[in-house]
Amino acid sequence: MTLPKPLKNALIVVLTYVCVVLIMRYRRDGMDWGPALLIGLLVTPLALLLSAGRDRLMGKAARAGERMRARRRGEAAE
């Protein structure tokens, strides 16, 4: 089953938020719910931006590698 992109993005945001809040709340020295919820609001967009940046960087690297391999094959054929 495939999900539409907006629904997939919404689920990722919600799950990231929930995971961050639960980790902050139930870590070894734990914190109250209020600060955990606020930190979750700050950390969730940052984590998603870092993830999107990593995907973009990895995509650029893959395309550069494909171009380099194509160039090598072209030079070897000549």
Structure report:
The protein is an all-alpha fold and 78 residues long. The protein contains 2 helices and no strands. Helix 1 packs across helix 2 (33-77). The protein is elongated, with a radius of gyration of 20 Å. It starts with a helix and ends with a helix.
Topology summary:
Blueprint: H1 5-26, H2 33-77
Helix pairs in contact: 1-2
Uncertain residue ranges: none
Average predicted local confidence, pLDDT? 87
How many strand units? 0
Taken in chain order, the helices and strands follow as HH
- What portion of residues is helical? over 70%
Q: Over the alpha carbons, how many angstroms does the gyration radius reach?
A: 20 Å
The oligomeric state of the chains shown is: single chain
Structural class: mainly alpha
Q: Figure out the total of helices.
A: 2
What tags apply to this protein structure?
78 residues, mainly alpha, elongated
Summarize the structure.
This protein is mostly helical and 78 residues long. It has helices at residues 5-26, 33-77.
